[in-house]
Fold this sequence. Notes:
By secondary structure, this protein is mainly beta. Among the domains are: 1-152, no CATH class; 358-492, no CATH class; 559-623, no CATH class.
Amino acid sequence: MAQDSNVRKIARFVGAAAIAVALGACGLISGLGTFKDGTCGEDCDASVHPGDAHTVMTTDGTMETGPILGEASSDAGEDAEDAAPEVGCAANEIECGEAGCVDPSMASNCGGCGNACGADADLCAAGEEGGFACTTTCPATAPVTCGTSCVDPTSNPEYCGGCETVCPAPANGEATCVSSVCGVACDTGYTLCGSSCVNEQTDSNNCGGCGATNAQSVCGSGTTCLAGTCQAPPPVEAGSDAMVAGMDSGPAVEAGVDAGVVEAGPVPCPDGSCPSSTPSGYGACPFGSCNGSTSSTCGGGGPCVCVNDTQCKSTHCVKVTGENDESCGSNCTGTGSRDGFNCELVSPGIPVPAGTTTYSCPANAGYKNSQLTCEASHTDCYCTADSECPSGHCVPNATNNNSCSGCTGTGTPDYRGCEAIATIPSCPIYIGCPSNTTCSYPTCYCTSDVACDSGHCIPSSHNGNCSGCTGTGTDDGHGCQPAPTSVPCTTSGGTGCSTSLTPTPVLNSGGTACLCVADGDCSSGKCVNANSQCTGSCTGSTTSTYDTEDCQTATSTADAWSCSAGNCDTVTSPTGSCTASGVPCWCTSNAQCPSGALCSNWNGCASGACTGTGTGNAFHCVP
């Protein structure tokens, strides 16, 4: 890949107006040519011309003036006076006359239009005062070289963890980079849902919560999201200018010369008001019921679980909020541990193992042979002290380590709860490797265990057989012993499965659960032979979901979708149906548009129902 392909945006560019306040009307950007000492008058010229000085960065990160480096044209100064973010340029770019929008972090326009870095200072770096300037070596604040730019891969979303990683930014949010790990910061009023930023007050697919993790947050057919709750839309009075049901009322249309005609301009469709498809039907439960139902029919989706004690082998169904509390009433008397069907784990059904089960972490699983701790669910091991991490920082987390006291880590934790180690980069020009690494062209290699997220650097010829390095095996390409994805807890202690159930369940290898051995053991009627434990007929599928007792579970999901008004913009005929949730809905008749507007004709309109033409608004209405 050509070197220039590695040169990307270095940081969010500081607006010219803010810098003008700090430096005076002539000094728009630190590193933009030079501006004269003293007070500028109205006609002060901040142009860069051949023979003038321009700003360069010294090895300690301070700014000094020196001769122009490179072949800046005589027009560079004139361009520089306009070197400010303009409409049409990205937030971290500047407008440079005929050159268009340029990145001021690049050596060709370092800090300003035409300010090209030369052979004796060929790198471009951000200065402590903001802006950019030419330098011979990258400063400590931006130690890694990516092409001809100096970057900080621990905090720069354009180079997060290395030159090739650009953090994606969703709509209504911006990308972040914390400790070399990509993240998202949503705009005010928006909440992170998966990798998207959603408005939980107006989004019918994420109403009051994230629809991806809570089916109850997806509004059903005939309702829309208002103030974070799914509600039926207010009725539309005959002759009113209100928009179609399911859409907020738009601004009133003022009468013009031709009464009732919408004035030129976009048809109102406020953010969040134009509808999109929502689930209108759900698949039946193969066993059990969805919350709010006592039959296999589901009105809102969700897990298929017991809603009555009689559905459980143990004769006790446990009432769980959000899963079966609406359906159980007084018919669920179970308490304590439960299986995936919400049946209590007790005889005469599948029980919890007899005896005491203990949980522990593998010895020496922490950094420098320190001991990690099992988290509350007894699944994985995590740090509980800074000393257990190569970075020297354990991230407090309510789930992983009970928000450990004294832990100082921040950002997204790694596989054992530690603040992540910065990804080791490459060194395409023999320099630019961070601390505790060395350049063996064209790759940076660890020289200490502390440089690796596994806590183990492998001694080799690439790093001079580094003293004190404890890694073994095949490295990850930068000398580090590869880190595992997790450190599982180990279990011991269960002694058997005491129950009158026939056939009798068996203890799993860790002694932590009793496993079904035939369909008759499971309240769902389906045992999965996931651990080769079956001695009777097991008809559950290994490709299905199943609980810790190996009994098959099920969830009702949407199998039909519709629009509160109009139809999905993906249909190809007036009788077409929506096939997914969240698809934009378009009008299918003139009557669905605001007074005076028309529906622009498309495939979803019946003959004569839509008489508008041209590009419509988000609901396909046109003036």
